[in-house]
Amino acid sequence: MNTNQLALRIAEETGLNKKEVRFLIDTTFETITEALKEGERVQINGFGSFFTRLRPARVYSGRFNAEGKETPEKIVAKFKVAKQLADSVSG
Question: In terms of Cα–Cα distance, which of 68, 9, 78, 86 is closest to 41?
Answer without folding.
Answer: 78
